[in-house]
């Protein structure tokens, strides 16, 4: 049986013939199909977070014992759709909650969460080029990120409030005719019965 000295010598001899971790180079990682950079090239064009002064509104709308409630949410939720959905799931609404996000008074996202059911819409598809919440929305919807030369259009569940008396065609008209995303959200809130509560939140904004 080989002694400890022979075993150590054998390991040393084999180590000379193969690169150790410290000796491995980029070619070694490439040969294994690995990327030592660990960066996802697909995320290189992901838009930067909206700054606080670019975020107009992040709010939750729900009814508690039949009373309409509008609650301001943390601004950082305007950059993270998944976190916004989770926040809405925690709202004490009788029949779920609605999230409204307005960015730069130019684009808005609406999310309706009822248990496991999530519906959402984006007022301007081109906004996916510029804002994380819009990019998250088109990804969630399975819609391709449009090119800059593509036509701007609302995308998603434009009929998400059809049961509340706001049909798809009217929602589409609001998106296309409004030049101010906050005004558009106030109009939608009014049609849903949250007009007074939402207008108070908007009026308090420092814009």
Automatic annotation (TrEMBL):
Bias (Acidic residues) ranges: 1-10, 23-49
Organism encoding this protein: Propioniciclava flava
Name this polypeptide is given: tRNA adenosine deaminase
Compositional bias annotation for Basic and acidic residues: 11-21
InterPro entries: tRNA_Adeno_NH3ase_assoc_put (IPR023869)
Residue ranges of the region described as Disordered: 1-49
